[in-house]
């Protein structure tokens, strides 16, 4: 096959053995690479009853078929394992340069099995691959680790690592790469920590041969022109995702005060405009990225001074509005600290905001917190707890297992303020203001998640795309964010597409928002880059197969319809304020429609036999 | 004498996406790979991304260094490598003060930027441009760009460059 590294590294951490295995073309034809390939490998290897932090868990890091290609935003890799946060399918993705570099070294994926008793890191220099002692790196943060590895080897190496949070098995710790890129959700940093893998450093001096070198650049020029001409691109360059704060405030979808409401009085203070005005240094891109949503910011003075990559909308919402915090410098610094320690800012902010509401309700006291004041908007507390969680100090140790586990431990009625699905904190989309996001959060394989489906077509007037993708008969309801109608159909379609995108290594920006590139564009690129003959329809079927396989994985760990639920607040309590006041998430009707179009059993929520047969998953 | 042109980039504007690097390796070598590219991008903190190309030196030490006389300057002022003469000795690589010449791993011949402009046309950030010493002084009136290049020269042009 063209356009890939060609081999997978199997690293047995128990025995310290490394094996190189060619990628399996048959598996690629059914699952592509990236998320799909890992879905199949891990499904085959992780039985029921596996301890996510035990040596039987398997951690995969994989590039997509187009990672390292010239397609716009082809920068991504995926990590997957049984999640220690949710105890179900765990998956997370990041951009950066690591994935492309791994391909240039000749590898498409790294599979870690077993666990080491001493800290090690994997160093890859083309064909030379070795596990090296990492005792000098253990205890170091992500930036220090990157500095040391690139000093010890060469500045041109790319690194992926965990910080102290992953070492300390914080259940929402991230796997970081290229300093400030995060595979943050699902707590897979802790899986890496449990195996005592501190880092992977990679240098590849190879090349990617493509299937159609003669016409490659000509096609890429057209893709580049389309991406650059898209009306979303200038805004993306200017704001990244930071201006979503303003947009979401205007539709009442900005999670505030632990998702009690979708509007926040202090929104302007933490907005994209506020960041640009005073703190933005530069827009930064990842490999092959034309949209450069990455932000590089600096707070020059005061207690929150720092300089580096930060932030994006999710952090503004999770460490800002969700905690009632309008102190922007603390939000920026908090994001920076989370990167430094290696943590998911969504679950971090979600967990702190749970504690703040419990405090506000009088259910948590200074006795529980060791004297820390958890009043809404206490920026100092948010920063202090960020450190304490990463290092598992004091009350931070309780929060380090996530809000669901913390509430279970504390009890006293704090459980009702847990805003999670399958124990993962809901991201920055208050679903009462966008119904599709409520459904997507419950159907996502990795627990609460906006990205598995990323159903944004009802968010910003994409009527034209809805018409093209689904047909005119679904308008206007499908495009109406407050209508639950047809959202099962939409979320299903978006999931199939998005898992396919994660399996080829492209970004959701450019494929889903803005919806510039679709199946046929990916099919064409797989042809000229990899030499694969797959139609758009076949790619859709592969996406569907991956979603069903993820569901089967979760079924093994006990997931059924009963687990596809939202906190009562979102389905029973009307949104109290703002443009979406009075709304609840009509989850049951959407879920029923979703199971129906998925071919899943209405009672169990599991794939029907004929569905599995149709997708070749019945053996 | 023809004014010598070269491609130059603004490290404050460059986003580090490497599109220029990939365009170059695809255009000339029909593959994707930084080691097959005549352009480099180096990311340095804080917040700098340097797109790097042949500076087309007036005294061009690469020309003098080549034992095979494979490097010459054309009438348009571009320093080119004659592939029939190049033996891949690497003398030009050693001589280049800007680490802008490399031996192509597949052909064994020296490669360098010849100011063709393919990358300039496609840079999504408009961070790179074809310029001359006079033009650059005009564009960079306060000397910001040049100062950044000068300040980081040890990291940008390491003497023991690894290919």
Which percent range describes the beta-strand content of chain A? Answer: 5-15%
If classified by CATH, what would the architecture of the largest domain in chain A be? 4-Layer Sandwich
- Percentage of residues assigned to helices of chain B: 25-40%
* H and E order of chain B: EHEEEHEEHEEHEHHH
CATH class of chain B: Alpha Beta
Q: Could you say which structural class the secondary elements and strand pairing of chain A correspond to?
A: alpha+beta
CATH class of the largest domain in chain A: Alpha Beta
Low-confidence stretches of chain B: none
Name the CATH architecture of chain B.
2-Layer Sandwich
**CATH-level-4 superfamily name of the largest domain in chain A:** Aldehyde ferredoxin oxidoreductase, N-terminal domain
The largest sheet of chain A is:
6 strands, mixed
CATH topology description of chain B: Alpha-Beta Plaits
Strand order of the largest sheet of chain A: 2-1-6-3-4-5
Distance between the termini of chain A: 27 Å
Rg calc of chain B = 15 Å
Q: Please, could you describe this protein's structure?
A:
The complex is a heterodimer of chains A (619) and B (163). Chain A is an alpha+beta fold. In chain A, 39% of the residues lie in helices and 14% in strands. Chain A has 25 helices and 18 strands. In chain A, strands 2-1-6-3-4-5 form a 6-stranded mixed beta sheet, with helices on both faces. In chain A, strand 15 and strand 16 form a beta hairpin. The radius of gyration of chain A is 22 Å and the shape is globular. Chain B is built from 7 helices and 9 strands; from the N terminus they run βαβββαββαββαβααα. Chain B has a single domain, classed as Alpha-Beta Plaits (2-Layer Sandwich). Chain B is 28% helix and 20% strand. The mean pLDDT of chain B is 95. The relative contact order of chain B is 0.23. Strand 13 of chain A pairs antiparallel with strand 2 of chain B.
């Amino acid at each position: 096959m063209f356009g890939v590294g060609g081999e997978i590294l199997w690293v047995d951490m128990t025995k310290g053995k490394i094996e190189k295995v060619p990628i399996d073309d048959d598996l690629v034809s059914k699952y592509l690479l990236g998320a799909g390939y890992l879905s199949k490998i891990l499904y085959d290897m992780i039985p029921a009853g596996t301890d996510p932090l035990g040596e039987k868990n398997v951690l995969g890091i994989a590039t997509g078929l187009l990672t390292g290609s010239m397609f716009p935003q082809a920068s991504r890799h995926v990590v997957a394992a049984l999640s220690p946060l949710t105890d179900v399918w765990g998956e997370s993705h990041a951009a950066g340069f690591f994935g492309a570099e791994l391909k240039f070294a000749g590898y498409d994926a790294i599979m870690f099995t077993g666990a080491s008793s001493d800290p090690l890191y994997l160093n890859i220099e083309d064909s030379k691959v070795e596990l090296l002692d990492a005792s000098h790196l253990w205890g170091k943060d992500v930036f220090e680790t990157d500095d040391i590895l690139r000093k010890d080897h060469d500045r041109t190496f790319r690194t992926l690592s965990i910080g102290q949070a992953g070492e300390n098995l914080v259940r929402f710790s991230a796997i970081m790469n290229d300093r400030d890129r995060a595979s943050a959700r699902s707590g897979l940093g802790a899986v890496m920590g449990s195996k005592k893998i501190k880092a992977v450093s990679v240098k590849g001096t190879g090349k990617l041969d493509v299937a159609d070198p003669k016409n490659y650049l000509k096609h890429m020029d057209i893709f580049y022109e389309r991406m650059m001409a898209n009306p979303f691109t200038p805004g993306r360059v200017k704001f990244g995702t930071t201006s979503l704060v303003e947009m979401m405030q205007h539709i009442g979808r900005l999670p505030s005060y632990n998702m009690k409401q979708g509007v926040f009085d202090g929104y302007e203070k933490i907005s994209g405009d506020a960041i640009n005005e005073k703190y933005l240094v530069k827009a930064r891109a990842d490999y092959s990225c034309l949209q450069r949503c990455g932000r590089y910011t600096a707070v020059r003075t005061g207690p929150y001074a720092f300089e580096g990559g930060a932030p994006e909308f999710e952090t503004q919402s999770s460490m800002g509005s969700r905690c009632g915090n309008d102190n922007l410098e603390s939000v920026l610094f908090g994001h920076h600290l989370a990167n430094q320690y290696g943590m998911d800012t969504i679950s971090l902010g979600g967990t702190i905001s749970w504690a703040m509401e419990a405090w506000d309700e009088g259910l948590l006291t200074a006795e529980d917190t060791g004297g820390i004041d958890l009043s809404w908007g206490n920026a100092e507390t948010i920063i202090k707890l960020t450190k304490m969680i990463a290092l598992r100090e004091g009350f931070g140790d309780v929060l380090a297992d996530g809000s669901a586990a913390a509430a279970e431990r504390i009890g006293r009625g704090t459980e009702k303020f847990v805003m999670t699905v399958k124990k993962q904190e809901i991201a920055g989309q208050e679903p009462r203001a966008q119904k599709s996001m409520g459904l997507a959060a419950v159907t996502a394989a990795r627990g609460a998640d906006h990205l598995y489906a990323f159903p944004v077509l009802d968010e910003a007037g994409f009527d034209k795309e809805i018409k093209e993708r689904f047909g005119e008969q679904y308008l206007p309801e499908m495009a109406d964010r407050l209508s639950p109608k047809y959202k099962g159909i939409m979320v299903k379609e978006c999931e199939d597409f998005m898992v396919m995108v994660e399996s080829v290594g492209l970004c959701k920006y450019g494929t889903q928002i803005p919806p510039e590139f679709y199946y046929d564009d990916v099919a064409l690129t797989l042809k000229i880059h990899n030499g694969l003959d797959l139609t758009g329809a076949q790619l859709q079927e592969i996406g569907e197969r991956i979603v069903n396989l993820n569901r089967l994985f979760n079924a093994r760990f006990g997931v059924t319809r009963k687990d596809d639920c939202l906190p009562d607040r979102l389905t029973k309590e009307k949104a109290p304020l703002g443009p979406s006041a009075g709304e609840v998430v009509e989850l049951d009707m959407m879920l029923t429609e979703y199971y129906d179009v998925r071919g899943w059993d209405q009672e169990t929520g599991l794939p029907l036999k004929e569905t599995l047969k149709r997708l070749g998953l019945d053996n | 004498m023809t004014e010598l042109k070269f491609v130059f980039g603004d490290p404050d504007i460059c986003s580090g996406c490497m599109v220029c690097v990939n365009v170059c390796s695809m255009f000339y070598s029909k593959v994707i790979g930084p080691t097959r590219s005549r352009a480099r991008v180096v990311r340095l903190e804080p917040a700098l991304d340097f797109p790097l190309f042949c500076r087309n030196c007036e005294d061009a030490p690469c020309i003098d260094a080549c034992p095979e006389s494979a490097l010459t300057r054309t009438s348009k002022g571009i320093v080119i490598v004659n592939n029939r003469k190049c033996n891949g000795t690497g003398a030009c690589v050693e001589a280049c003060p800007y680490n802008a010449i490399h031996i192509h791993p597949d052909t064994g011949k020296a490669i360098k930027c010849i100011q063709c402009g393919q990358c300039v046309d496609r840079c999504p950030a408009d961070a790179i441009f074809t310029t001359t010493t006079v033009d650059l002084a005009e564009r960079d009136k306060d000397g910001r760009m040049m100062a950044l290049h000068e300040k980081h020269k040890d990291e940008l042009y390491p003497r023991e460059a690894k290919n």
